[in-house]
Fold this protein.
Amino acid sequence: MAEVANGTDDGPPDEGGLLPVGGKPDIWSVWEADCWMSPEPFDGTAARVPGIAFPLTKEWQWEYDYSDDPLHSSLLHETYLHGSALLGKGRPGAFWTLVVAGPQRGQVWWLRDGCAAPYADPPPQQRAGDFLTWVKDWHVGQGWWRTE
């Protein structure tokens, strides 16, 4: 990540560029109720802990879970704060992250209110979403997030 693009704005203009290693987008610590389906989804002022394993191994759509379940809130906070390095932001409430600890290490994940999902190439390739695959797609403005 540091060698390929440590804080560059090359790529799709609406994405805002890649963050420097350890950086956070400005909107990370600002929770805006109209951008989130969940109650305050995570503490944006809390220290991120990349050394603790990223808690997910497959897509999680928490919009279908009950947010009053005590396990919901702790897993949601861990998803945003543990085991990853932020790459950048997309739409309000959406972030790209590189998992750096745990079984998903080396994979890029998309965190958006309501779900978290690993990145994969669009069909027919459907390759795993490692950083190099993701950054190539991001750089030229292609990928499954562009089909919306």
Notes: The chain has two helices and four strands. The mean pLDDT is 77.
